């Protein structure tokens, strides 16, 4: 694929800001397909990619998509596509079990300010695990909590769950800026904010510092991979659903290339503590994902396995709720699963086993929330 030309990217942004979405879509499609501008539009570019390329777009709705454009499942906010009785609204029972509390908070440091939502389990008399959940583009903390139902799973195991929320001022589509060099380093940019929220929750509540975990979806999954690499002393394990490896991109053009499955992940200094052991990581990725190429799932696992002596095994294909999947596992000498890659056959860009009331969810398939939590609790820092 040819490199995305900065001039053409600027032109696509200008067209979108001026309301000429059809022309911007055609230009981006040509770029992503590797064709020259003016050779005729081709369908298939995701709305999420269009929003990412156009910082002037604050919200992308179904009405904004040109007629005939194929949109990948989950690429538009579910509030624009859902026709259920709620029409995009979320009820309290969608977000958290009534036994616990789901409260709002905020954190500020030199890197900025971010809001967050925190689930406090009903039983928390002694230090408890904490799970940090990073939403995808066009999502909110509430949307992500409802779609993953992580609060309900966490209540069963008496875990805290915190959902940092990206600010529209930082990214108009509310994507975590995983592809920016300034947001891939320890104690700088968004990593400093996410780590700061984690530590603030640790300070304000009884958290077991040895059992802190981080997970995310899509751009949030890529940000979780960055956090696992830049703060290995803080997070005991990492979960990535439909995301990308730390170092997959350094700017917007390379982000598009990585999302399409082009270009190797380049090693670079992140400012975190060096480690010669594998970083406990679990990955879910659909092999029909047209928003983030499934090759990225394998690259996350490869980057997490930094010299550890692990035994590899691949389980036979299994079926869950009509979804076929393959699970590849790498275990340590004690038989503990350290790296897991779940390849979801025929699945797209959505949280496996999720609740359809939230966006970017697929109710079919293995329950990614349950499996991530199971994997996390097997690991202690």
Q: Could you characterize the architecture of this molecule?
A:
The chain is of the alpha/beta class. The protein folds into 2 domains: 6-71, no CATH class; 99-376, 3-Layer(aba) Sandwich (Rossmann fold). The chain has 12 helices and 13 strands. The strands form 2 sheets. Strands 1, 2, 3, 4, 5, 6, 7, 8, 9, 10 and 11 form an 11-stranded mixed sheet that branches. Helix 1 runs antiparallel to helix 2 (21-33). The relative contact order is 0.13. Mean pLDDT is 81; it is low at 1-6, 32-87 and 266-274.
Name the features.
13 strands; 21% strand; Rossmann fold; 381 residues; disordered N terminus; eleven-stranded mixed β-sheet; 12 helices; alpha/beta; two-stranded parallel sheet; single chain
Portion in beta strands: 15-25%
Low-confidence stretches: 1-6, 32-87, 266-274
Treating each run of at least 4 consecutive H or I residues as one helix, how many helices? Answer: 12
Major sheet attributes: 11 strands, mixed
In short:
With 381 residues, this protein is α/β, with parallel strands linked by helices. The chain has helices at 6-17, 21-33, 47-53, 78-81, 92-95, 141-148, 150-156, 189-204, 219-230, 252-259, 295-304, 368-376; strands at residues 101-109, 112-120, 128-134, 160-164, 207-217, 237-241, 281-286, 311-314, 318-320, 323-331, 337-345, 351-352, 361-362.
Record the SSE blueprint.
Blueprint: H1 6-17, H2 21-33, H3 47-53, H4 78-81, H5 92-95, E1 101-109, E2 112-120, E3 128-134, H6 141-148, H7 150-156, E4 160-164, H8 189-204, E5 207-217, H9 219-230, E6 237-241, H10 252-259, E7 281-286, H11 295-304, E8 311-314, E9 318-320, E10 323-331, E11 337-345, E12 351-352, E13 361-362, H12 368-376
Parallel strand pairs: 3-4, 3-5, 5-6, 6-7, 7-11, 12-13
Antiparallel strand pairs: 1-2, 2-4, 8-10, 9-10, 10-11
């Amino acid at each position: 694929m040819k490199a995305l030309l900065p001039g053409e990217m600027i032109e696509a942004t200008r067209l979108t800001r001026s309301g000429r979405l059809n022309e911007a879509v055609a230009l981006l499609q040509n770029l992503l397909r590797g064709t020259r501008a003016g050779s005729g539009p081709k369908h298939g570019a995701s709305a999420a990619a269009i929003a990412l390329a156009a910082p002037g777009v604050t919200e992308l709705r179904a009405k904004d998509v040109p007629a005939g454009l194929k949109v990948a499942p989950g690429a538009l906010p579910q509030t624009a596509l859902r026709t259920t009785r709620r029409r995009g609204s979320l009820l309290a029972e969608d977000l958290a079990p009534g036994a616990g509390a789901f409260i709002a908070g905020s954190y500020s440091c030199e890197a900025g300010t971010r809001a967050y939502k925190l689930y406090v389990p009903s039983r928390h008399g002694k230090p408890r695990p904490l799970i940090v959940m990073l939403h995808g583009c066009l999502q909110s903390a509430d949307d992500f909590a409802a779609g993953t139902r992580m609060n309900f799973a966490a209540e069963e195991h008496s875990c805290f769950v915190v959902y940092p929320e990206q600010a529209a001022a930082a990214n108009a589509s509310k994507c975590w800026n995983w592809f920016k060099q300034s947001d891939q380093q320890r104690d700088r940019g968004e990593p400093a904010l996410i780590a700061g929220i984690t530590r603030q929750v640790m300070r304000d509540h009884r958290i077991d510092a040895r059992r802190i975990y981080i997970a995310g979806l899509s751009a949030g999954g890529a940000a979780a991979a960055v956090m696992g690499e830049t703060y290995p002393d803080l997070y005991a394990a990492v979960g990535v659903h439909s995301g990308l490896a730390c170092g997959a991109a350094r700017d917007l053009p390379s982000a598009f290339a990585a999302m399409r499955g082009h270009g190797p992940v380049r090693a670079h200094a992140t400012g975190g503590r060096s480690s010669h052991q594998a970083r406990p990581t679990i990955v879910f990725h659909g092999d029909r994902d047209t928003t983030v190429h499934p090759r990225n799932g394998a690259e996350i696992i490869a980057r997490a396995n930094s010299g550890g002596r692990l035994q590899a095994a691949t389980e036979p294909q299994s079926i869950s709720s009509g979804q076929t999947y393959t699970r590849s596992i790498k275990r340590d000498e004690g038989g503990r699963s350290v790296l897991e890659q779940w390849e979801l056959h025929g699945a797209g860009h959505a949280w496996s086993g999720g609740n359809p009331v939230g966006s970017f969810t697929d109710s079919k398939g293995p329950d990614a929330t349950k499996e991530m939590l199971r994997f996390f609790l097997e690991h202690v820092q």
